[in-house]
Automatic annotation (TrEMBL):
<protein>
    <recommendedName>
        <fullName>PCI domain-containing protein</fullName>
    </recommendedName>
</protein>
<dbReference type="GO" id="GO:0002183">
    <property type="term" value="P:cytoplasmic translational initiation"/>
</dbReference>
<keyword id="KW-0648">Protein biosynthesis</keyword>
<keyword id="KW-0396">Initiation factor</keyword>
<dbReference type="Pfam" id="PF18005">
    <property type="entry name" value="eIF3m_C_helix"/>
</dbReference>
<dbReference type="InterPro" id="IPR045237">
    <property type="entry name" value="COPS7/eIF3m"/>
</dbReference>
<comment type="similarity">
    <text>Belongs to the CSN7/EIF3M family. CSN7 subfamily.</text>
</comment>
<dbReference type="Pfam" id="PF01399">
    <property type="entry name" value="PCI"/>
</dbReference>
<dbReference type="GO" id="GO:0005852">
    <property type="term" value="C:eukaryotic translation initiation factor 3 complex"/>
</dbReference>
<feature type="domain" description="PCI">
    <location>
        <begin position="183"/>
        <end position="347"/>
    </location>
</feature>
<dbReference type="InterPro" id="IPR000717">
    <property type="entry name" value="PCI_dom"/>
</dbReference>
<dbReference type="GO" id="GO:0003743">
    <property type="term" value="F:translation initiation factor activity"/>
</dbReference>
<keyword id="KW-0963">Cytoplasm</keyword>
<dbReference type="InterPro" id="IPR040750">
    <property type="entry name" value="eIF3m_C_helix"/>
</dbReference>
<dbReference type="InterPro" id="IPR027528">
    <property type="entry name" value="eIF3m"/>
</dbReference>
Length: 390
């Protein structure tokens, strides 16, 4: 049960408000003091709550050492207020903090965190406060403070009973902030959720966001999961757009086909904010992975790789090393014979053709194993025949 604040606490808060107001406007401070006196005398809690809502921005003037304590006192006074008053106060505080040009990062985040925890776990207002936390963290370069909370996000959304559109909005906002802060893996985890949850009715309105996600994935050096990205219905919706077409090429096309596409869509690619040479680098790395998947365990001549990647033969080793660093292949280079033997390769796409290739390899492995077993059996039989007493 939430107990009401004592009038001593209310009087203390009133004095703090008047003091803070007086630091910038003595006349306004006096007017506030005059207004508060009868409210305190008459114990008019509802009107005190109204004043707190009106003066929410004033509280941010407090010195860093007093700020958290002042806000905690406010939350104590407000905890028995009507939902309408709490909503109004929260909205005012959030807008003030978000627009404030004063840095005070730690203080802002602490206030927002305390406000978040003060609200009921099922309160939809928590979603709005969390959005503000993300925004302030992004603005002040402190997005790392949000990362530890990400595992709780889905459970919180369920508690807040957020509609699908609101969930998607929150996923997208947080993913953008994480991406800007260098948390690429966490950002794409939320973008996957956004793309998978986005309702079909919202595809059109979300087109710009979907295109931005595709473009960001393409230009992120460590991202190669293009088959997964292309599999989302919300992304397939853009299959005839330049962004969708480029994604399809990255999934399962050659360097030559990529060059043809760029030749016909140069302006569209630039409009996506992509650097052609950087995309070509990623395309070549993916093409090398495809060669490895098709010729696994075989010594591949540098000349074959150079032809597929459309590079000079003396550049092949650099491209193989790049693919190894990207985690797409494991390979051994033979500089004397000028061959590369790829022992493991990531499939760009796994469809009917890949299943057939895998089946052929399994059959070959089975036949090879049968041959070995037969040889071993024959050797044992021969050994037994030559040593009958053994």
């Amino acid at each position: 049960t939430r107990l009401p604040a004592s009038f001593g606490q209310i009087a203390e808060l009133s004095a703090i408000l008047v003091q803070l107001k007086g630091e910038s406007d003595a006349v306004a401070a006096k007017a506030l003091e005059v207004r508060m006196k009868p409210l305190l005398k008459g114990k008019d809690i509802e009107e005190v709550h109204s004043v707190l809502v009106e003066e929410a921005a004033t509280l941010l003037v407090a010195a860093d050492k007093d700020l958290e304590g002042t806000f905690n006192l406010v939350l104590t006074v407000l905890r028995t207020a009507s939902e309408e008053k709490i909503d109004a106060f929260t909205t005012c505080i959030l807008e003030t903090i978000e627009k404030s040009e004063i840095e005070r990062t730690a203080a802002k985040l602490k206030i927002l965190s305390n406000l978040f925890n003060a609200l009921a776990p099922t309160s939809a207002l928590r979603a709005r406060v969390f959005q503000s936390l993300v925004l302030v963290a992004e603005q002040t370069g402190a997005i790392s403070a949000i990362v530890p909370q990400l595992p709780h996000l889905d459970a919180w959304m369920a508690e807040w009973s957020l509609e699908t559109e609101k969930r998607c909005e929150l996923y997208l906002q947080i993913s953008k902030a994480l991406g800007a802060g260098g948390f690429t893996e966490q950002a794409f985890a939320l973008r996957r959720k956004y793309l998978s949850m986005l309702p079909e009715s919202a595809y059109g309105a979300a087109k710009e966001s979907i295109v931005a996600i595709i473009a960001d994935a393409i230009q992120t050096p460590s991202f190669y999961a293009f088959e997964e990205l292309a599999s989302f219905p919300s992304v397939k919706y853009l299959s005839k757009e330049p962004a969708g077409q480029l994604l399809t090429i990255l999934v399962d096309s050659s360097v030559s086909e990529y060059r043809d596409f760029i030749g016909a869509n140069d302006s569209a690619i630039k409009a996506l904010g992509l650097a052609e040479e950087e995309v070509l680098r990623k395309m070549r790395t993916l093409a090398l992975a495809s060669i490895g998947a098709e010729r696994l365990g075989v010594a591949i001549p540098y000349a074959d790789i150079a032809k597929a990647l459309e590079v000079e033969t003396d550049e092949v080793e650099i491209w193989v090393i790049d693919a190894i660093r990207a985690g797409l292949v494991e390979a051994r280079l033979d500089q004397l014979k000028e061959t590369a033997t790829i022992s493991r390769s990531t499939y760009r796409v796994f469809g009917q053709r890949e299943w057939q290739l895998l089946g052929s390899r399994l059959h070959a492995w089975r036949d090879s194993l049968s041959s070995v077993l037969s040889t071993v059996a024959n050797a044992r039989a021969g050994n037994t025949a030559s040593n009958p007493t053994a």
